[in-house]
């Protein structure tokens, strides 16, 4: 992206991992990239393809919350177009036919090490991370869902969408509770020498 003269930056989990330790955090399986919607052109996807990336899918339109998923060497790369409204920046993403929006204060760009690469990132990074992950963003957590967990996420849609969103959120929380209970039982069994 840089040789093409395009403004971009790492964000979300990729930024979090870079700030904490210079690479992906535990459980982070993709690369998150943001760029101004005004800088996007479809020929960038062709540039990615020429560099060996596979185009997986796109959602939305350039005028209405476009995100593009690519894959390289088995790693997903999510490109989010960032828009401006009322002095705030935001991007959208979809979750099971629901659309959510993450908003944050505008920022400049600095450079940070990510897996030995010098990449652009929000400057300063801390307000962006706090807007997304809360005041305790430095403390790793085990369960995270991009549509439910961020502090700065808002559902886009009417009453029916809100009901569907709330039900999916409850389902996700129930799965998390079930996993915790299973881990707790499995841990007790492992500590009990009388059990197999």
Taken from the alpha-carbon principal axes, the silhouette is globular
- Number of E-type strands: 10
Supply the helix-strand structural class: alpha+beta
- Whole-angstrom Rg: 19 Å
Distance N to C terminus: 54 Å
Output the number of helix runs. 4
Instruction: Estimate the mean pLDDT confidence.
Output: 86
* Elements, N to C (H/E): EHEHEEEEEEEHEH
Helix percent band: 25-40%
For the sheet with most strands, the description reads:
8 strands, mixed
Uncertain ranges:
none
Beta-sheet strand percentage?
A: 35-45%
Any overview of this molecule?
The protein has 196 residues and is α+β, with helices and mostly antiparallel strands. The protein has four helices and ten strands. It has helices at 12-21, 43-50, 125-133, 159-191, and strands spanning 9-10, 30-36, 54-61, 64-72, 75-85, 88-95, 98-104, 108-114, 117-123, 153-156. Strands 1, 2, 3, 4, 5, 6, 7 and 10 form an eight-stranded mixed sheet that branches. A two-stranded antiparallel ribbon has the order 8-9. A hairpin with a 2-residue loop joins β8 (108-114) and β9. α1 (12-21) crosses α3. The termini are far apart. The mean pLDDT is 86.
């Amino acid at each position: 992206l840089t040789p093409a003269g395009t403004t971009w930056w790492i964000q979300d989990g990729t930024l979090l991992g870079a700030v904490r330790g210079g690479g992906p955090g535990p459980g982070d399986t993709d690369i998150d990239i943001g760029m101004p919607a005004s800088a996007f052109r479809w020929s960038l996807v062709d540039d990615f393809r020429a560099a060996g990336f596979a185009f997986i899918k796109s959602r939305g339109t350039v005028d209405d919350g476009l995100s593009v998923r690519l894959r390289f060497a088995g790693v997903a790369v999510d490109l989010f177009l960032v828009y401006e409204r009322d002095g705030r920046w935001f991007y959208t993403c979809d979750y099971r036919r629901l659309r959510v929006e993450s908003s944050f204060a505008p920022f400049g760009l600095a450079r940070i090490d990510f897996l030995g690469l010098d990449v652009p990132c929000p400057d300063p990074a801390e307000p962006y991370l706090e807007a997304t992950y809360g005041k305790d963003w430095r403390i790793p957590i085990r369960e995270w869902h991009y549509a439910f967990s961020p502090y700065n996420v808002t559902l886009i849609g009417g009453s029916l969408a809100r009901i569907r969103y709330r039900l999916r959120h409850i389902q996700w929380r129930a799965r998390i509770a079930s996993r915790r209970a299973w881990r707790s039982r499995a841990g007790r069994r492992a500590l009990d020498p009388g059990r197999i």
